Backbone:
């Protein structure tokens, strides 16, 4: 990530697990991690200490005002995404936002419109479509004939010890993965899908999709 003015300058909001991975990805791509913001001061300091040009901040406002910044990675809880994104857009900063982007599709559309009005980019994180195995699947897909059914099953231990609301949020966090893969591998089928879904218990989701020539099922 090198621009005509040198390495791309990025910062991270949220010093948890995903914040660590985002900072690592910036550094691996030859970008500069220049700041880490988290309400947990020690967490921000620990992550910032791994990168020589990075400083810890306890607020997004302080981070955005702390120096020239080109991209902000939003790895904080979902409820903070819209506020953080709006602050970044007002500061003229591009955004990479962990999934889910927002709570609703209409909120996401509104966010994209605000970014477009300012000439800025908002990119949700869907890393699976860039992995080698998925690229190989896309290459081989034309050789296997017509796809008539797709199914995805997710079993996660990440819900252990969570409240009922947190278990449902975990499902929402994971759901974009199979949807992004379906959209990448079978874009025409994805656009024609009609969906139905229900939650039999906290942390569980059943979703069924049907198109003219294909059916899709998702179980978590």
Residues:
């Amino acid at each position: 990530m090198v621009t005509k003015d040198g390495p791309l300058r990025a910062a991270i909001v949220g010093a948890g697990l995903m914040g660590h991975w985002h900072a690592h990805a910036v550094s691996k791509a030859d970008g500069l991690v220049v700041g880490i913001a988290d309400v947990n001061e020690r967490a921000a300091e620990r992550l910032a200490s791994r990168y020589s040009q990075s400083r810890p901040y306890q607020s997004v406002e302080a981070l955005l005002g702390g120096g020239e910044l080109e991209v902000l990675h939003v790895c904080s809880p979902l409820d903070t995404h819209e506020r953080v994104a709006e602050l970044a857009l007002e500061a003229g900063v591009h955004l990479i936002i962990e999934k889910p982007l927002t709570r609703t599709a209409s909120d996401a559309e509104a966010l994209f419109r605000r970014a477009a009005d300012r000439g800025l980019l908002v990119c949700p994180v869907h890393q699976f479509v860039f992995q080698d195995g998925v690229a190989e699947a896309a290459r081989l897909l034309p050789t296997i004939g017509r796809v008539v059914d797709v199914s995805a099953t997710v079993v996660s231990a990440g819900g252990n010890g969570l409240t009922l609301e947190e278990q449902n949020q975990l499902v929402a966090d994971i759901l974009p993965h199979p949807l992004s893969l379906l959209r990448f591998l079978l874009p025409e089928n994805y656009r024609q899908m009609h969906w139905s879904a229900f939650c039999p218990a906290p942390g569980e989701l059943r979703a069924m999709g049907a198109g003219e020539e294909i059916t899709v099922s998702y179980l978590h």
